[in-house]
Structure prediction request, 231 residues.
Amino acid sequence: MSSQTNTNPLALPITLALSKGRIFDETLPLLAAAGIEVSENPETSRKLIIGTSNPMVRLIIVRASDVPTYVEYGAADLGIAGKDVLIEHASDHPGGLYQPIDLNIARCKLCVAVRKGFDYSSAVKQGARLRVATKYVNAAREHFAAKGVYVDLIKLYGSMELAPLVGLADAIVDLVSTGNTLKANDLVAVEDIVEISSRLIVNRASLKTRHAELQPLLDAFEQASRSHAAS
Prediction:
């Protein structure tokens, strides 16, 4: 940040939208590499706006699915969100966000999973119909449409693994990291849809009006993500 910006009492801090959990934890080293230390842990603090060691950078803590909305509408200049969330957001808001950097954090896969013993290969023959439970309805719809499979999508927000076990759905589309949760519930991943990692996203207006302030932070994130990917 320029010294002129830092000494201006009217300057607004750059706002970075983050969600709690794995993305937050894996973002901390990237922030540290950019010379930014977070003042509080959102897991133990009730604050939703958190300061940092740089008075011109603050964090807001929101739900993962809300990060793109805060950034697109300018409530945050920057955000960090998983590709899974961005795919869903882009279906309703095409072209609304600039996604300059893959941070190579919070890596996993968006997969199709079924209960053990379910004949998935027969169930997805062209022209077949399948009931699929997921919160990633747009990604699931596009995936099965490309296969020529009709799907009845059932939107759930959690405990996805339960759906095939109680007959609610034939399959689920969900994020898979270690696969331990699937295994514990007698499910198996049968198809990968897309590799997932978290991306830095930028409000397009902020990129134009605050370019000089944002660029050093973008550069620091890019350098840190490269180092993270190489480690």
Summary: The CA atoms of residues 19 and 66 lie 9 Å apart. The chain has two domains: 3-106+197-230, 108-195.
